[in-house]
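Please study the protein below:
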Amino acid sequence: MRRIKVSFNSPVILTFTIICLISLALGEVTEGKTTEMFFSVYRSSLASPVTYVRFAGHVFGHAGWDHFLGNIMLILVVGPLLEEKYGSSNMIFIILSTALVTGIVNFVFFPHIRLLGASGVVFALILLSSFTSIKEGSIPLTFILVAVIYIGEQIYAGLFIQSNVSNLTHILGGLVGAGLGYVMNKHKMNRY
């Protein structure tokens, strides 16, 4: 009888998930104090070192279990396939780039809105995934459809639906994923 091993198949995605889970648990235990202090971004003093932690740390924070599960389920479905294709270091770069772009934009343009959650990362991974079958001189139809549906829906929701969802974060995350997907695939094609 063969033993089945459990493998840590996607170290970046699994570590990201674990950090998000720990930050959510800390937020629950501290009644949101750690979430506000480290895992959400909002206008604060640039003299405070924690402000810079928040620029990236906000992607680990979540407002509750539903928010966490909604983001993490998509990340766990799409992320491991992308990490296998692009490598762990590129996944770290994509997540960090998305976090910094969305965090800094929120800090600068929305000073009274607190942003937290991994939805920007989710959108980056979704748009990045549509680039997996790119060939030189062509744009995958799947990318066009995903971009139109996801980005279009976010623009519509941002203009016509009142909610606590940061549609701009979703759009920016999607643009980061699409841009990095294009660059990484173009670089890969130029090596062959």
